[in-house]
Structure prediction request, 261 residues.
Amino acid sequence: MTKLSIIIPVYNAAPFLRRCIDSIPGLNDNNTVEVIFINDGSKDNSGYILDEYAQNSSKIIHHATNWGVGMTRNHGISIASGEWVTFLDADDELHPNAITFMLGTINKEPKDPLIAFNHLRVYGDGKPVAKFVNKAGCYTLGKTMPQKWTPVWGKMVRRDFINDNGIRFPQSLSYGEDEIFLLQCLRVCKHIRHENEATILKHYDNPESLTHTLTKKKLDEFMRCEMDLLLEDNPQGFDDAVRDLIAHHWNDPTYRRVFGG
Prediction:
């Protein structure tokens, strides 16, 4: 039976962590779901909360120092045993039917190495208020990509595809590492399969999240890393897609605010 590994970096997420953990069904079912919590040197009670929930199907790794989200996710990939891996942020939660949706999709589309799902957006009052709706189908890298495809949450990737192609998160970035990871995937497979279902409830109530703590330095490092991709030996069409993505970022209101115009 196919197993799905859920990799969850945890850093100072105590106020939201129980919500995240409680949203994951199948913690006692070793045949279908493996949950890997990586406590990345948290200074709050995150480690104690993880220990409370420790079960046979969960791997909980405590780091004495803060590695950063890229290295932490890479470590999760290296110890995962599932044929597929997916990623969840510690301040978000899974949709109640997420596991059913994901395992069903794996069985339906076993050859696609990269599969994406929709998500629900949840703000301070706890109610899902908006949804990015992308039609099911195969999207090719370029201007036809679905909305909100660059974050790594809401995606499933075949573990052998990641390892066989040496794909890893950049460890030097504190923002945008997920987009670089997905671009590396798409440089090889050139497409992403999208399903209609929503699997992630994306919360916006964490004032310490990367979304709320963007700085010019973080964005500058990310954009330099993205431009470095253009210096590599890339397949036809990949460079144009990266340039379009860079242009999109520079025109984004968040980037313009951080860079002052």
In short: The mean pLDDT is 88. The longest strand covers residues 191-203. The chain has one domain: 4-206. The longest helix spans residues 177-189.
